[in-house]
Amino acid sequence: MDKTLKMSILLDFFSDLLTQKQRDCFDLYYNENLSLSEIAEENGISRQAVRDLLMRTEKYLCELEEKTGVAERYLKRRAVVSEIQNDLDLVTVLNHEQLHSVELSELIENMKNKLRDIEL
């Protein structure tokens, strides 16, 4: 996963734990793609101050994720849900084609296993 996506996801999960200034600068940099200079000008601070703020915030968010694993679990669950949706689409096709119930039973069992995985 690229850094921008990772930071945006971490911001989504932990934004309430940041100061308003951290949230604003982080959002402008990672979600709005503004440069350090543009953010500095908008906030009336130096470019270096913006860079330092972003670096501290990145470190803090990564530490929070390391301790909690919230974002990683979310991404794993999202991937499993996508797999289940694909399996359901296949079940629908097989059902319309009236193929053997053994194949449908295997797909259904596979989906049940995936659902157990996301309950972790």
Q: How many domains comprise the coordinates? A: 2
- Outline the low-pLDDT stretches: none
Over the alpha carbons, how many angstroms does the gyration radius reach? 21 Å
- The CATH C-level name of the largest domain is Mainly Alpha
> What is the helix fraction of residues, given as a range?
over 70%
Shape: elongated
Query: Could you state the CATH homologous superfamily of the largest domain?
Result: Winged helix-like DNA-binding domain superfamily/Winged helix DNA-binding domain
State the CATH architecture of the largest domain.
Answer: Orthogonal Bundle
Question: What is the helix/strand order?
Answer: HHHHHH
Number of strands: 0
Topology-level CATH name of the largest domain: Arc Repressor Mutant, subunit A
Instruction: List the total number of helices.
Output: 6
Largest sheet properties: none
Strand content: under 5%
